[in-house]
Amino acid sequence: MSNQQDFYNARAAEARADADAATLDNVRDRCLRSEAAWAEMAARAGRTERMRAKTEAAKAEAKDAE
Description:
The chain has helices at 3-21, 25-65. The chain has 66 residues and is mainly α.
Protein backbone atom coordinates (compact mmCIF):
# COMPACT_ATOMS: atom_id res chain seq x y z
CA MET A 1 0.00 0.00 0.00
CA SER A 2 1.31 3.43 -0.87
CA ASN A 3 1.86 6.26 1.57
CA GLN A 4 -0.84 8.21 -0.22
CA GLN A 5 -3.31 5.37 0.15
CA ASP A 6 -2.38 5.01 3.83
CA PHE A 7 -3.00 8.73 4.31
CA TYR A 8 -6.43 8.52 2.67
CA ASN A 9 -7.38 5.47 4.73
CA ALA A 10 -6.30 7.24 7.92
CA ARG A 11 -8.44 10.26 7.06
CA ALA A 12 -11.41 7.96 6.33
CA ALA A 13 -10.99 6.30 9.73
CA GLU A 14 -10.76 9.70 11.38
CA ALA A 15 -13.95 10.84 9.66
CA ARG A 16 -15.68 7.62 10.80
CA ALA A 17 -14.60 8.27 14.39
CA ASP A 18 -15.90 11.83 14.14
CA ALA A 19 -19.20 10.53 12.79
CA ASP A 20 -19.49 8.05 15.65
CA ALA A 21 -18.84 10.84 18.16
CA ALA A 22 -21.21 13.35 16.56
CA THR A 23 -24.39 14.20 18.42
CA LEU A 24 -26.01 16.22 15.64
CA ASP A 25 -27.46 14.44 12.61
CA ASN A 26 -26.13 16.97 10.12
CA VAL A 27 -22.62 16.71 11.55
CA ARG A 28 -22.78 12.91 11.46
CA ASP A 29 -23.97 13.00 7.85
CA ARG A 30 -21.19 15.38 6.89
CA CYS A 31 -18.59 13.12 8.52
CA LEU A 32 -20.00 10.06 6.77
CA ARG A 33 -19.83 11.85 3.41
CA SER A 34 -16.25 12.78 4.21
CA GLU A 35 -15.45 9.17 5.08
CA ALA A 36 -16.92 7.99 1.77
CA ALA A 37 -14.88 10.56 -0.16
CA TRP A 38 -11.62 9.61 1.58
CA ALA A 39 -12.35 5.90 1.05
CA GLU A 40 -12.94 6.52 -2.66
CA MET A 41 -9.66 8.44 -2.91
CA ALA A 42 -7.87 5.52 -1.20
CA ALA A 43 -9.43 3.05 -3.62
CA ARG A 44 -8.46 5.23 -6.58
CA ALA A 45 -4.89 5.52 -5.31
CA GLY A 46 -4.75 1.73 -4.99
CA ARG A 47 -6.02 1.22 -8.55
CA THR A 48 -3.52 3.76 -9.85
CA GLU A 49 -0.69 2.03 -8.02
CA ARG A 50 -1.67 -1.38 -9.45
CA MET A 51 -1.98 0.02 -12.99
CA ARG A 52 1.40 1.73 -12.65
CA ALA A 53 3.04 -1.51 -11.50
CA LYS A 54 1.41 -3.44 -14.36
CA THR A 55 2.59 -0.88 -16.92
CA GLU A 56 6.13 -0.87 -15.53
CA ALA A 57 6.21 -4.68 -15.60
CA ALA A 58 5.03 -4.71 -19.21
CA LYS A 59 7.68 -2.15 -20.18
CA ALA A 60 10.39 -4.17 -18.44
CA GLU A 61 9.19 -7.35 -20.15
CA ALA A 62 9.21 -5.62 -23.55
CA LYS A 63 12.71 -4.30 -22.93
CA ASP A 64 13.92 -7.79 -21.95
CA ALA A 65 12.37 -9.23 -25.09
CA GLU A 66 14.44 -6.92 -27.30
